[in-house]
Design the sequence.
C-alpha cells in the first residue's frame, strides 16, 4: 500500500502488522543480550516485559479511540493540554525510533554477513546499505507495502515458531546455563529491562487508525491478541533456541543468536532459512518504522513542535527531509554502535513513553483503571532496573542519554522559537 492509498486494513492485516512490528527485529536482536543477563531466566524476562506491553497496548487503543486521532502519545498529551510535555516526549520518541532502526540494521548486517562469512567491514556496510535502500524506496513513494509486509510476517512467524517447538521437543535444561554461570531469579527483571524494545512496534498501528476497518470494534481485541501471541512466542523461542544452541554460544554470538541455534539444529539448511527470515524481517521492520517515524515527524512539525524543515514533502507526498535525516542518523549508529548499547538505549526511551501513555489512560479512564495502573507500576519498576543496570555497566551511555534529554528539554523551546521566527520573516519578505 503506497502512502497515498485509501485502502483499509482488515483485522488479519492489523494483527499481522502489529505482531510483525514487534517480532520483525525484536527477537533477532535481543535473544543473546537477555541470555547474557538472565541466563536460565531469559523466558521470565520476556514475560515481565510482556506485562508492560499488554496494558500499554490497551492504553494506546483506548486513548486513540477516545480522542479519535492518530499520532500516538504526542496527540494524547496535546489532548490533555500538556503541549510542552508533548513536544519534549515527541523528540525523545523519535530518538527511540532512530535507535530502533539502527538496531534492526545492525541485525540485518550481522545475520547476512554470518551466512557468507563476510568480514566486519562488510557487515557494517550491509547495515548502511539496507537503510540507504529503504530510504530510496520511501522517497519513491513505495514505503508502506502492507501486503508484502504481511507475507514476510507470516513466513517469519512460521520459522520462529518451528525453531522454538523443535528446540522444546529436544528439551535439556542443562543447556539454559551451558558454559555460563546460573543467574539469580531477580536477574529476569534486569534482563527484561535491557531488552524492552523487543515489544516496540505494535503502537505504530495507532498511527494508521484512519486506515483501519471498523477500528472502534476490532482494534482493541486485535492488538491485544497480537501482543499476547508475541509474548508467548518470545518465551517459546527463548527456551527452544537455547536448547538447540546452548547458552554460551548464544551469548558469545549474540548478534546472530538465532542463526547459531538453527545451524546446530539443521546445519547449513538452518542457516539459509534463518538468514532469509532474519533479513526480510529486519528489512520490513526498518521500512515500517522509518515510514511511520517520518510521517510522525511531519505531523509534529505541522504543530510547530519540530522545525518546519521537517514538514517538507517531495512530489510523491513523502516527507523526504525527515526520511533522509532519520535514515542517516540510524545508519550512522548502526555502523559505529554496539548491539547491547543500542538495544538498552532504545528500551529506556520506550519504557518512558509507554509509562506516560499508561498514566494518561489512567487519568482519562472512567473504568478499568487497574489496567493502565499495572502498566505504570511494572514499567516504573523495570525502568528503574534499567537505569540501575546502565549506571553500573554503561555509565557513559546513561550520561549520554541524560544529556540528550536535558538538551531536548532546555534547547527545544529555544530552537523552535528561532526557527518559527525565521519562517515568519521569510513569509513577510
Sequence:
Amino acid at each position: 500500500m503506497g502512502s497515498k492509498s485509501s485502502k483499509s486494513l482488515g483485522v488479519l492485516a492489523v494483527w499481522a502488522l502489529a505482531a510483525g512490528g514487534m517480532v520483525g527485529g525484536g527477537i533477532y536482536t535481543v535473544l543473546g543480550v537477555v541470555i547474557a543477563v538472565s541466563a536460565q531466566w531469559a523466558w521470565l524476562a520476556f514475560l515481565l516485559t510482556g506485562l508492560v506491553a499488554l496494558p500499554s497496548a490497551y492504553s494506546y487503543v483506548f486513548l486513540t479511540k477516545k480522542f479519535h486521532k492518530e499520532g500516538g502519545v504526542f496527540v494524547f498529551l496535546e489532548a490533555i493540554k500538556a503541549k510542552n510535555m508533548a513536544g519534549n516526549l515527541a523528540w525523545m520518541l523519535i530518538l527511540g525510533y532512530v535507535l530502533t532502526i539502527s538496531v534492526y540494521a545492525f541485525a540485518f548486517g550481522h545475520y547476512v554477513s554470518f551466512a557468507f562469512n563476510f568480514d566486519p567491514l562488510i557487515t557494517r556496510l550491509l547495515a548502511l546499505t539496507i537503510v540507504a535502500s529503504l530510504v530510496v524506496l520511501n522517497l519513491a513513494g513505495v514505503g508502506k507495502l502492507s501486503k508484502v509486509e504481511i507475507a514476510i510476517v507470516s513466513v517469519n512467524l512460521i520459522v520462529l515458531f518451528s525453531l522454538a517447538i523443535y528446540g522444546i521437543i529436544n528439551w535439556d535444561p542443562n543447556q539454559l546455563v551451558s558454559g555460563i554461570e546460573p543467574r539469580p531469579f531477580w536477574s529476569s527483571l534486569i534482563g527484561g529491562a535491557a531488552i524492552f524494545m523487543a515489544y516496540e512496534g505494535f503502537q505504530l498501528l495507532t498511527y494508521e487508525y484512519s486506515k483501519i476497518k471498523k477500528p472502534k470494534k476490532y482494534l482493541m481485541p486485535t492488538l491485544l491478541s497480537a501482543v499476547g501471541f508475541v509474548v508467548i512466542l518470545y518465551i517459546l523461542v527463548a527456551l527452544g533456541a537455547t536448547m538447540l544452541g546452548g547458552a554460551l554460544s548464544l551469548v558469545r554470538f549474540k548478534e546472530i543468536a538465532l542463526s547459531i541455534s538453527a545451524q546446530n539444529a539443521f546445519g547449513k539448511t538452518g542457516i539459509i532459512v534463518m538468514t532469509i527470515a532474519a533479513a526480510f524481517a529486519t528489512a520490513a521492520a526498518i521500512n515500517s518504522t522509518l515510514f511511520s517515524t517520518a510521517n510522525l515527524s511531519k505531523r509534529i512539525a505541522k504543530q510547530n513542535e519540530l522545525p518546519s524543515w521537517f514538514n517538507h514533502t517531495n512530489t510523491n507526498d513523502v516527507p523526504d527531509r525527515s526520511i533522509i535525516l532519520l535514515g542517516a542518523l540510524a545508519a550512522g549508529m548502526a555502523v559505529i554502535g554496539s548491539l547491547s548499547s543500542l538495544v538498552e538505549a532504545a528500551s529506556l526511551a520506550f519504557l518512558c513513553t509507554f509509562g506516560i501513555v499508561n498514566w494518561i489512560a489512567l487519568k482519562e479512564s472512567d473504568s478499568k483503571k487497574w489496567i493502565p495502573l499495572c502498566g505504570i507500576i511494572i514499567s516504573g519498576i523495570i525502568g528503574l532496573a534499567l537505569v540501575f543496570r546502565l549506571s553500573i555497566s554503561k555509565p557513559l551511555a546513561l550520561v549520554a542519554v541524560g544529556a540528550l534529554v536535558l538538551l531536548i528539554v532546555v534547547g527545544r523551546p529555544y530552537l523552535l522559537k528561532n526557527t518559527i521566527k525565521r519562517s515568519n520573516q521569510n513569509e513577510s519578505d
Remarks:
- The domain at 11-395 is CATH 1.20.1740.10 (Amino acid/polyamine transporter I).
- Residues 22 and 224 are 13 Å apart (CA to CA).
